Structure prediction request, 467 residues.
Amino acid sequence: MKVMPTLSRRELLKYASAASLALSARARGQSQPSLAPYPTIFIHLFGGVDQFMFFDARPGLPNRDVQASNVRVTRAGVRWNTATLDPYLTAHMEDAVLIRNLTAFGDHVRSSTELLYGQLPSEPSGLRSSCKPWMNVLASQLNARVKVPLPNVAKYYSLAPSVGAVEPLNLVSWNNVSLDPLCAVRRVQNLVDFAKSLDVSASVAEVARRQAAYRLSASLDPLFSPQQQHRLLDLYGQSLQQADAALASTAAVKTFWPPAASTSTAFNLGAGDLAQTNLPNGQPGIKAMLAAAFEMARLQLTHVVFVMKCENGDYDSSHDENINTQHTVSKPDFEAIGQLLSALKATPSPVEPGQSMFDTTHVVVTSEIIRNPSNSDAGGGVKAAGTSHWPGNQAVCFGGRFRRGLLFGDLGPNYMGLSTDFATGTIGQGSVPTPNDLIATLFRANGVDSALWSAKGKPLTAVLRSP
Prediction:
């Protein structure tokens, strides 16, 4: 015989409250506030992407093969190269926001650290930053703001970073900060094992105990007697039944990996992609990582996913041969990014009814630096066909509260960023934006004060839609 658990009055009220909260949470899911937290997928293509061959295509620069006939210009003025981005991003370029005048240190380590932690001292010895990783701060602020926290955040933040991080970007040990391993997907070397370590249904209430509370309620106190308070008990029973049904559907999701069949189809994932853990740099492939990022956003497992990609070699091989490096390394990247954007557009948003996930997800694609527009430094570790680093950067943004199609900023005759008014986009006014300002823009997009992370960044409100 099955024995019902014994519940005190306090426990009974707790489970009654849990049922009510479950119902109200579902109701809130149908009517989100105007600045509901939108997930952010931040994609860092490590090594120095040559934007002059991709989103800011410029024919005539040395060691590039950009042909004027292959340059297409969006309505907003973004000049993109069909030879490198077509067909992967063709359907999405009119939605692209290009921020093309960001500053950068000009070397991989400091510039990458700046993307994670904020502006750093100019000397290499000053790599340690007083800031925490921005994605942890934004995610925790959003989680504190929502009335029903995401189910896995508490455990997700308590996990230790993965071991065996790839040098030279062991940013966690350099800064003595326990970086969230899900934000830095590059550090998750086995998505299958990592997914198993996360209890997706951790916040699901104990259905059996709440049902027992319902059955025992009449005998525990006359207040819950059907004869005296039949309507209260009836409503309580209805709420439990509805909450049980809702929570049971949530509990059916035990892990985000392997992904749903529809996600595997959208990203063209094969068995090798699903199990891949032993690439030379010890991380899953870019398709697998972005499919995982999509699943985490779809299932609302986290507010921020930071993906650092450096499979298939990295863009810094451009020191030897720029054209082949950029073409070869970028192909799987932009194919997967295009699949991500298409999947977001084809999937209903779990945040805003009637919207797509593209409408409620911020996607940012950037590198830590771009490549030298000339090869005048050939000989300093750079071959004649190669390009070196350049102290500038660009970012391409899609979806969410970003505007649909915009060109922000410009470069001067020396290919350095020009000052631009952050609010209006007027060139020649304001200042040259930094990576801090890019990150502050993501905070503003979610209605969070970026000063909670760093006082140095100011949001580029010109690239955002009006509230």
Observations:
- The chain has two domains: 1-31+205-252, 32-200+254-463.
- The chain has a mean pLDDT of 75.
- The CA atoms of residues 38 and 149 lie 14 Å apart.
- The radius of gyration is 25 Å.
